[in-house]
Amino acid sequence: MDEQNSIRNTQHSVDTASVRVSLDVESVLVDTFSYFIPVYNERHDANYGVSDIDCWEWAREEVEWEHFDGLIHEGWQDPVENMEPKEEDLASVVNDFASHDLVQLDIVTARTGVENKMLEWLSHHGITQFNQFRATEIPKSEFDYNVFIDDKPGLANTLGEKQLQYLVVGPHNKSMVDHEDVIAVDTVSEAMGHMSTHMLVSEGIDEYW
Ligand SMILES: [Mg+2]
Question: In principle, which of 8, 22, 123, 151 could form an S-S bond with 108, CB 3.0–4.6 Å?
Answer without folding.
Answer: 22
